[in-house]
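Re: duplicated header lines in exported structure tokens

Our pipeline writes sequence and tokens for each protein into one text file. With two proteins the header for the second block appears twice in some exports. Here is an export where it did not happen, for reference. First protein block:
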Amino acid sequence: MALGFAVLLAFAQATPAQVDFDQVESWMRENLDDSVLHLLDQIDREQARALFNELMTSFANNDVYELAPLKDAASNLVPVLDRFEATRPYASWLKTHLDYLEVADELKRKAPAAPPTNPSPEVQRTVWDTRLEKRPVPARAQKYLPRLKPIFTQQGVPAALVWIAEVESSFDPAARSPAGAVGMFQLMPATARSLGLAVSPSDERLDPEKSAQAAAKYLRYLHGRFKDWRLALAAYNCGESRVHHLLTRHQTRSYSAIATRLPAETQMYIPKIEATLHKREAVSLTGLRLPAPRPVSNSD
């Protein structure tokens, strides 16, 4: 719902794809806050059909260039969401995702008139490096890094990967996505529960330390499965079954072989993480080494 009130104008005249709006509405009722739903009830049904179809599909689609038209509407929405306590967590999520929309717009402007394929990870990485070159460290990072890096190391995950919190939420523990991901590391409800976090009545994803521990455990598992940090992080972003399916379909174990076939957000997520790690820690994903895991208690 975070994108809704601005994207509504951009997509009101769009021809909606084939979507079961009753199913979409059911999803919204299960995942969005009551305060947001109250506003939803005031939106025309046909406009909402186009809006939520776009929200559910834009980042999941394969075409990176199709993200570009969302840029202006999303940019205009951020200050509106920031004004209200109830919508501020959505603003945090949207701020981190403006990068994707703006980079997609830049890539589209630089691409041939009819680009045959998505931009390669190498092309995207060049844009991300330039974009992040002068970006300051998020204000919250200084507070949380000393607390969270030891948690990652204890779980046997490189401490540098704590910086995925900048990519996911700009280190905001309250960040919330329209799809239901919550917290500094943007864990979905089912994933959080599988990692031992409660999501109700009190949502432990909002706790920075607990969220970091769960994220690190999940990353350790994904790296153990895929044996490659780029594949592990792709699975963290779009789901391990999606990554496994692509690897199997194309008979490969290489991230590069499937990179342009991943969802658009994931295609951009990996080079953004790589650029962030280079900027913040002067390390690369391929150069990361697993620390020796420290003993953990039975409750971990």
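Second protein block, exported in the same file:
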Amino acid sequence: MKKEPMVGVGVIIIKDNKVLLGKRKGSHGEGAWAPPGGHLEFNEDIEDCAKREVLEEIGIHIKDVSFVIATNDIFKEENRHHITLWMVSCYDYGGLKKYSEIEKWEWFEWNNLPEPLFIPVQNLLKFNYDPFK
């Protein structure tokens, strides 16, 4: 059976000069820190996917959503392959809610991110991306 990469959307949310990350649990990348995101659905606009995933996972609304870059993310141990479309956005309104696949949500300064980072985030950083520049 032929396997093909899945398309993921990662959403960097900016609020008060910090970005939101969650510590993953119960899914691939468990224990790693990552921004919210999910899989692009068939016929879905990337910006709409970012807004939907953030609202579903966190319960907040975002604005000023724009595309940043794509990363090629291979999870060898889990036999998974994702292409992640990275979006950057600003917090608009709403409060953080619990999500079954995230142990906790926290806001971090971009130059002081926690470890370990989810593989797609590690790959994003290889491009020297900085959402504040």
